[in-house]
Amino acid sequence: MAEVKQFKLPDVGEGLTEADIVSWKVKPGDQVTVNQVIVEIETAKSLVELPSPFGGVVTELLVPEGQSVDVGTPIIAVDVSADAGAGSSAGGPGPHGTVPAGSTPAGTAPTTQAATGVQDDSAAREPGIHGSPAPKIERQAVLVGYGVKLGTTTRRPRKGGKAGGGSGGGAVPAEPVTPPASSGNGASGRAGTTERPMAKPPVRKLAKDLGVDLAALTGSGPEGTITREDVQAAAAAPAVAEAAGPLAGPAVLAGGEERMPIRGVRKHTALAVSSSAFTAPHVTEFLRIDVTETMSAVQRLRELPEFEGWRPSPLLLVAKALMLAVARHPMINSSWDEAAQEIVVKHYVNLGIAAATDRGLLVPNIKNAHAMSLPALARALSELAATARSGKTPPADLARGTITITNVGVFGVDTGTPILTPGESAILALGQVKEAPWVHEGALAVRQVTTLALSFDHRIVDGDLGSAVLRDIGAMLTDPVRMIAWA
After folding, report:
1. Is 458 among the catalytic positions?
2. Among 107, 173, 337, 380, which residue's CB has the most CB atoms within a 10 Å radius?
3. CA 144, CA 209: separation in Å to the nearest integer?
4. Which CATH superfamily, name and number, covers 266-486?
5. Which of 96, 268, 440, 458 is catalytic?
6. In this structure, are residues 64 and 173 in contact, taking their beta carbons and an 8 Å threshold?
7. Buried (b) or exposed (e) across 336-359, using 16+ Cβ within 10 A?
8. pLDDT in tens, 358-376
9. Element containing residue 405 per DSSP (H, E)
10. Is CATH 1.10.510.10 the right assignment for the domain spanning 4-130?
11. Could you tell me which residue, 270 or 76, shows the higher pLDDT?
């Protein structure tokens, strides 16, 4: 007898209330194993791959790709009965071949049971798993990434009056959602079905946002894979105007308009910066400095074996200077607790680095950056940037930051007036480094010059403290030896 369980969209961390279904990795009829990746979702902060909480045969995909759903909405149904799940629970054939009993398929995360030795019955209490109770508690591993227990997370109230009413309505379709029956390499899996164009999930999402039909494109990538450039070129091509009817309005010139849904990272960023701008009274101060010695120091660091493979940049020494300034002026590294009517001074630095990505602005942070050596900090900065660009920044890396740097110089501008990251009292902007005339040792010379901008929360940081922090950072970047003296 079939025993169907529904997997509900879990809270993957930080109290997120909704997510977008980016791409399904399985289809109805597929056999899945515990911890096999079944779907990729996009939260307000990052792309996340969700593993299956149980083994069996997929019976329905309850939410289509591209739809936004609330946390707690069923997204997939799996038949976990003995007949259907024999292959996944006893080492039978799965979608990737025969899997020995007790093993984990290649490419999937190890179970928490194997990693930490927790009780086997804890999976039965995991949120997001729904179905008829078994006669007895089965031995089932806790899924990696589902560590949020009931009652431990306080969420923002959901918007709208309907349960499950995310930006896509959160409603479960009346009929099962059946994706095109094609394999990952584009081969058709059923007779009479149209072959699905070959494209990676981010490219499919871009095409959806731009209104481009992938089936109409010829891919320029390997084996005809459709690339991001193919989609962008199709979107930029002039649209063919439709014949106007007798009641049609004025003709629209070529070019037209484009509408993009506000969701994911961009939606989160818009809410965060709006809240910050209208909550914390911002003050921004500027300082133009000579960083010729800092640029020379960066070049010297690149030659040292300790930095091999990590290529230090000026941002490395800017980050070090900021953390030393924090040590000298701890109040700059604090937050305003409105509910408790307290100022919380952090005696540690979780250093946020603003990163521009294809999905929008992210501000991941390096935990306990103040305790890192310079080579370790260089490695952390490099890994942070690579992870952010790939869209794989985990939610934990986006939380609990204490102070931020934004490097606007990479865009070729001198500086800006940055908006505070919510919950922080200061953000430092680094402008482009360029040659400029400068009075050096009493004579006019061409030097490497940049402009720093420090925005701070005037409820916590007054002009005297903000100016002192900015002066200290400027002094250390003008003469990097000061970093040794003040460390």
Report:
1. yes
2. 380
3. 31
4. Chloramphenicol acetyltransferase-like domain (3.30.559.10)
5. 458
6. yes
7. beeeeeeeeebeebbbbbbbeeeb
8. 878 889 999 999 999 999 9
9. strand 403-407
10. no
11. 76
